[in-house]
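Give me a protein, keeping tokens residue-aligned:
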Amino acid sequence: MATDSPLLLAAVTLLSAFQMGYLARRVGWSRMAHKILPPVVSGPPEFERTFRAHQNCVEFYPLFLVTLWTCGMFFSEVLAAAAGLVYMVARQIYFNGYIQSTKKRLPGFYLTLAALFTLSVLAVTGVVHGILDKYFYIHI
């Protein structure tokens, strides 16, 4: 294995995939508890909040992966991995809060946005720096 392999990014990606699987399982448990068979996605408010919390996590996941890897490859793997772990904690706070009530999802949502914003800014910074260096011979 090459010593410059992005091991931290791979580890955070795997952890986040396991987390997504766990959140999907929580929807399954909610389906069983409320006797809601697929493909039905409506039912008691508790089920609907659980389903919607998971769906929101699914919707954000591609953005997370792209910014995680772009930041890690072009700016800093360590900072990207750290921000990725913060993102995962934020998603768990969001999910657990949303299941209880829609208002309790907000702290996790705001922390999610902060983690994604950080990853995005660092990713853009790294890519722009790389483009300036490689194509315009501007060394910042």
In short: The mean pLDDT is 97. Helices lie at 7-34, 45-74, 77-100, 106-136.
